[in-house]
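Final report, Chapter 2: Outcomes

The project's central promise was a pipeline that accepts a single protein chain and returns its three-dimensional structure in a standardized token representation, suitable for archiving and comparison. That pipeline is now operational. To close this chapter, we reproduce one record exactly as it appears in the project archive, with the input sequence first and the structure output second.
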Amino acid sequence: MENSVYARVDINEALSMAPIRPRRGRAKAMLSLLRPRQWVKNGLVLAAPLAMAPAHLVHGPVPIAATFAAFTAASSVVYVLNDWLDRKRDLLHPEKQHRPLASGGVGPVGAILLAGMCAVVLGAGLVLVPLDARLLVGAYLALNVAYCLGLKHQPLVDISIVAAGFVLRVAAGSVAAGIPPDSNLMICVYFSCLLLSLGKRRHELSTSLRSAQAEDHRPSLRQYSVGLLDSLMMVSLAITLVSYFLFLRDDVTFDHPMLATLTLPFAVFAGARYLQLVVIHETGGEPSRDLARDRPMLLNAALWLGLLVVGVIV
């Protein structure tokens, strides 16, 4: 009898402590809803200042940092809106069904409040950036809201909007640093990001061939084929490499010009390795995650970046 009494007491004590865990779980789920792992993409705001005018990062960091914060807040608003609209559709996807809204970790009202908080941060950040940069952030937000509301279901339009979002980051970073946007750099960024988006669609299409529900999750997949995506990836890679070389040759000042040419093999390897990962290893569903886990790609990136640093600084 005593043991049963003590057991009931222990259970009651455990139940009294239970609310602590859900609160922590909700906090974690709300942070996950903002997709902090994707914030690294906003680092493209720094691309033009780092490549063309590193001194601006030291002498005028506030507008650049504020632009980075504005894109981080804007992208978080888009992520919340996208997941809120897709919370039922995500249940059809083997991985996305675990997203906070689809799994019930965050309720619809909580998601709306979270998006409102991000909008406040966005407004505060925009106060500190130049007018042209504000317009570019606004264009990013408007374009991606349209994407969430229906354009993501339009084949070719979907991947074009994703790639355009990265170009807007680069352009806004240029404006914030007082640098004229560079056409070669923006072309390179557009087609490299288009390549990643195509690889992601190819991975999703391969999954859909094994599961009919995958196409229900992303209807635009019905208008793609593996052959089409492979062809578009090859074209995107070729344009990326050409525009990258033109950017190095014409727009970046190297004290040792030969170093610019020597970085080209690293760019070729990165593109070829990505194609290998997508086509042979059938990865690419989460490009940032897959590339960050690939040791050959990480080693190549380290050597590539090191050579660029030497070429610009030394």
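Archive annotation: Confidence is low (pLDDT under 50) at residues 1-21.
This record, like all others produced under the grant, will remain available to the consortium after the project formally closes.
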